[in-house]
Amino acid sequence: MPRGPVIVRTIKTLDRTIGGYRDAGETLALVPTMGALHAGHLALVRRARRRADRVAVSIFVNPTQFAPTEDFASYPRSFDADIAALRREEVDLVWAPPRDVMYPQGFATSVHVKGPAIVDLEDRFRPHFFGGVATVVAKLFAQCRPDFAVFGEKDYQQLKTITRMAADLDLKVRIIGVPTVREKDGLALSSRNVYLSESERAAAPVLYRTLKESAARIAAREPIARVMSEGWLAIEAAGFAVDYYEARHAETLQRVETVDDGPLRLLVAARLGKTRLIDNIEGSVRTTGAGPGRRPRVLRFARKVSSAE
């Protein structure tokens, strides 16, 4: 039977537990989460297990990254099920601090991020978000002192922001990005997918299909502006209210005009009913010369974030 993770809720116990790992000369990988774990989170845990001797998972629904109008109170919480899943993955440590431990009375400090955090994507619609994320992640790094921290590519702007923050602040942690885990029909796994009605769930894979179609057209050197405009309209026609549908430089997230402007990432955020979904893919693949007896030629315009490992 898999051994259970140590569940820690105080800084003192966390220091003692991690100190034991360090005294034994063991490396530590951290997977920051807000709980409501799904297969995507567990893929991060497995990647962490391959990189370090010990794996810690944090579970903390961070209030500072939610606006007053967002779903903090109703955000899915399933702590017992999360622990059972992490036990099966043989996670060593779960850091689950109460709110007053993470943000004690009188807390007055925050991390202010720029660069990929202010590129008119998520930040346009959630201006509070990346400051809250950067602050809580900086605290998690300080508390857990990991050698590695593992994040999913689904939250791509977040991944680039955290990577930039860790480099700028000389934090002794290596950020690892892991490709998005998807349902069979392409829908990116997300804790918020539970909000979708049956009909909305049937429509949701349009995001991924449209991203793939746009990436192929751009790789074939169709004009980016036209491709993305038509993709936006296709997503709207499926019943979404689109916040953005953009082709950006894969590293800086700055706007691009052609495939020659650098490696590309295509990103989308759209609302389906009351649920806001985000997704992104590498702007990379074109096949040419496909046919009987011929192998397709693949052109790549962006390297995966996980290649930074």
Q: How would you sum up this structure in a few lines?
A:
The protein is α/β, with parallel strands linked by helices and 309 residues long. The chain has helices at residues 11-23, 39-51, 79-88, 99-102, 122-125, 129-144, 156-168, 198-203, 206-219, 224-237, and strands spanning 6-8, 28-33, 54-59, 93-95, 148-152, 174-178, 241-249, 264-272, 275-282, 287-288, 297-298.
List the main descriptive attributes of the protein structure presented here.
alpha/beta; Rossmann fold; Pantoate--beta-alanine Ligase, Chain: A,domain 2; 2 domains; 11 strands; globular; disordered C terminus
| Number of helical stretches of at least 4 residues | 10
Percent range for helical residues?
Answer: 25-40%
CATH superfamily of the largest domain: HUPs
Q: Helices and strands, in N-to-C order?
A: EHEHEHEHHHEHEHHHEEEEE
Rg measurement, Å: 20 Å
Q: What's the level 1 CATH class of the largest domain?
A: Alpha Beta
Largest sheet, if any?
A: 6 strands, parallel
Number of domains: 2
What oligomeric state is this?
single chain
E-strand count = 11
Low-confidence runs: 285-309
Structural class: alpha/beta
In terms of DSSP E residues, the strand content is 15-25%
Q: How is the secondary structure organized here?
A:
Layout: E1 6-8, H1 11-23, E2 28-33, H2 39-51, E3 54-59, H3 79-88, E4 93-95, H4 99-102, H5 122-125, H6 129-144, E5 148-152, H7 156-168, E6 174-178, H8 198-203, H9 206-219, H10 224-237, E7 241-249, E8 264-272, E9 275-282, E10 287-288, E11 297-298
Parallel strand pairs: 1-4, 2-3, 2-5, 3-4, 5-6
Antiparallel strand pairs: 7-8, 8-9, 10-11
Helix pairs in contact: 6-7, 9-10
